[in-house]
Amino acid sequence: MERIFSARLAPLAFSLSALFLAGCNEDTAPKTDTAQPAALASMVIPVCVNDECLVLDQNGTMLVNGDNTYAVTLSIPLTNTFIFAEDGQWNLANANGSQIIKPNFTDGLRLLTPGYFGFERDGKFGVMDQQGNEVQAPAYDEIYSGGDLPPGMGQYIVYGIDEKFGLLGADGHVVTEPLFDSLTTYKDIALAGGWILAERDAQNWVINLQTGETKQVGFDKFDEYANDHFVVSLGSKKGLADASNKLLTDLKYYWMGVPGNGLVAFKENHDSLCGYLDFQGKVAIAPAYAECEVFGQKGAMVKPKTDDGGKGKFSFIARTGQALTKPTFDWVGPAVHAPMGMFKNAPGYTQTGTLQNMFVAYYGIFDTDKGIELLKPEYVQVGVLTPDLFVFAKPDSPTKTVTFLGSANQQPTLGVMNASGKVLIEPGQYLNITLDKSGRFIRAMTESTRQTNTALYDLKGKLLVPAQWQEVIIDEARGALFAYALEGTPNDETRSLRALYSLNGTPSFQTRTVGCDVQQVIDGSGKVVWPTDPENFCGEPEDDEAADTQ
């Protein structure tokens, strides 16, 4: 039944892609914080199984059984209310469904931010909270969630009036008036200092979500954000800006790297050598290298250009440009592992590689903050999760078949070890392992696709959520881990809540499949919550005509 609601949202989600550009979630820095388990907050949690929708609390106790007239419920956990559809209209009810708080309030419900929803009246959209209070009266032509988070978990709200767009905060307060022709965010806005790019009358602007500050700028894109500085671009030309988006250089460079510890790599032109600028825009290390990596506190990896025009091996240089190591490595790059062997930047670390033969390379980790080699190139894949945790695959690790662009390949499975080499998660099951953006949990995916099964671990390697569902939402404020099943395409995707765990991995409820593919809800102790008679959902058996034919 949740598919009904998801299908209604799909055209909206698709239409937003042309206007609102959100990138992938990025883990840009290893963190060492450990999770502090919290008690589950009081919640009202609708769950739909077998075309019936029931309502549970945070303990898995049934508040409303499946014998009701609801066409569908909104599977977003709220505090003491829930939302259901009946006869084509949305209704807000109290926890046990005995009192309708707000009946027939909209036929165009939108998920916005935690606890806030868009609703429609007379062709206009407004914002309401989970108690049914109108935070913004219906005066907007369009409204939707902003930020790269799951539905109903956005970081801000975009609204439109007369083909102009403005911003609301996560709680529905006005951040800007509707002045802009388009709005664009870069990756996770939290990693970009809370800034949003906008266009107004063919001019480029930035908007700060925290302060509401708006100002015109001379660039049209954020390329990187690190070390409190932006790499920005106008067309194909790049420059450096500070955290307030003040340009520190001209927009004239063909390429700029990730800012790190007061320096940023640059190339003037496509065929130029690379060097480093300081954060005042002055040349700190003259262009003399074929490749330049991110600076740590002690230095950076570079590859000199040889006299004969070829490329040599990488060495580690100081801020003065002095070589601190001999040219040793055949390859270096970012140190955070991502799917299909790609990598992202981990401040203070660089991945190193050495060729074993023409077709095989082994990889290690170099600490650019301390200027030491942490892990020698002995792994077929390796990356940094935290300063004490590393994702890895050894030459003899089990493999899985992965099909990419129509070609089947053997991909090594990954594990997790600490700095002393103790294995916390054994290779064999996962093709992708990343640190959650909170820095407190490890996500492990069994395949490389969007709808792969995802497991969740703590930083000590304890399994919290098994790899049974495709999406795990971490809600530390409520002490909860929500597991969702995903079906369909990205433009028409169904998200169905299937399990709830505390932060320490204790289940409150989960679903299982029994008998003739009937889904059953069980509580944390394994007791059946609904339905207790799954055979009633099996239907009549079909005649087997083939049995009479020999």
State the helical fraction: under 10%
What would the principal axes of the Cα set say about the shape?
globular
Radius of gyration: 26 Å
Overall pLDDT level: 87
Q: Which residue ranges are poorly predicted, with pLDDT under 50 across at least 5 consecutive positions?
A: 1-35, 545-550
Portion in strands: over 45%
Sheet with most strands: strand arrangement: 22-23-24-25-26-27
Major sheet details:
6 strands, antiparallel
DSSP helical segment count: 1
Q: Could you give the distance between the termini?
A: 41 Å
- SS content category: mainly beta
Total number of strands: 49
Describe the structure.
- The chain is mainly β.
- The strands form 13 sheets. Strands 22-23-24-25-26-27 form a 6-stranded antiparallel sheet, with no helix packed on it.
- Strand 46 (492-502) and strand 47 form a beta hairpin.
- The longest helix has 15 residues, at 2-16.
- Residues 1-35 and 545-550 have low confidence and may be disordered.
Short descriptors:
550 residues, six-stranded antiparallel sheet, mainly beta, 3% helix
Task: Give the helix/strand layout.
Blueprint lengths: L1 H15 L27 E6 L2 E6 L4 E3 L7 E2 L7 E6 L2 E6 L5 E7 L3 E4 L2 E6 L2 E6 L4 E7 L1 E5 L9 E6 L2 E5 L13 E3 L10 E6 L2 E6 L5 E4 L3 E6 L2 E6 L2 E6 L12 E2 L6 E5 L6 E5 L4 E10 L7 E5 L10 E3 L13 E3 L2 E2 L5 E2 L4 E7 L5 E7 L4 E8 L1 E6 L2 E5 L5 E6 L2 E6 L1 E5 L4 E8 L1 E4 L5 E5 L8 E5 L4 E7 L1 E5 L4 E10 L2 E11 L4 E8 L3 E6 L4 E3 L20
